[in-house]
Amino acid sequence: MKLIAWDFDGTLVDSRPLIEAGMTHALDALGQPRSVMAEWLKYVGLPVEAGIRNTFDPLGLDMDEVLQAYRSFGHAANEHMMRPFEGIPELLAELKGRGQRMAVVTSKRRVPLLRQMAQWDWEPLFEPIITPDEVAHGKPHPESLERLQAMTGLAPEDILMVGDTPFDLDMARAAGVPSLAVGHGFYPQEALAACGPRAYAPDTAALRDILLSWGV
Q: What SS3 state is found at 169?
């Protein structure tokens, strides 16, 4: 593969504690039962606006009100709750040392993404970085990967999408890009297998073995 396109949350970084803390804050502020969390987590991997719409429209809540409550948590002040998955910093450094080109294709907005990457000095590892701020249609629409192809001049088969959600894998399939599913994120293996990835890696060690076996 000439370029690995990484998802961020749930693939490179365990952001679940921060995501759950933010939604718990929002549910309490809105007077909603915390059991709604289970529905919200089904949409992690989509742009946050889409996830909120899918979760709260059936409950009759105004999306702007929910979004305001969610963002009032103060995510930036609590980013210490995020951690790279075990072995990911070492794997990224190894791949970079091998000359592997890498990009990020994420549902996270650019400003918080770059701020979070700065914690681990990751921004120089990835080019380009594609967020919902650069496209009209977020995951699972293929536009993000189509934009990646346009920016790099690469064919779909030259790119590998690595992600932890069906939205990542469906985006890749729609763009004609091969994908690799990781299992340390938000979704079980069965849900990911249904989206047609080339392989499934339950953890970082397996992810490394797969990538190296493919000559990355």
A: helix
Handedness of CA 167, 168, 171, 176 (dihedral sign): negative
The predicted-structure confidence for 119-143, as pLDDT tens digits, reads as follows: 999 999 999 999 999 999 999 999 9
pLDDT at position 101 = 98
d(CA 189, CA 10): 14
Q: Which residues are catalytic?
A: 7
Q: Residue 158 pLDDT > 90, yes or no?
A: yes
d(CA 53, CA 32): 15
CB count in 10 Å sphere of residue 105? 29
Q: Is the pTM of this model over 0.85?
A: yes
- pLDDT tens-digit map of 33-85: 999 999 989 999 988 899 999 999 999 999 999 999 999 999 999 999 999 99
User: How does DSSP classify residue 161?
Assistant: E
- Inter-residue contact 135 to 151 (CB < 8 Å): no
Q: Single out the residue of 199, 156, 158 nearest to residue 181, CA to CA.
A: 199
CATH no., domain 3-14+83-213? 3.40.50.1000
User: Could you tell me the residue ranges of all domains in the chain?
Assistant: 3-14+83-213, 16-79
Report the C-alpha gap between 7 and 69 in whole angstroms: 26
For 46, the token pair is 């989509």
In sequence order, what E strands does 19-136 have? 83-84, 101-105, 129-130
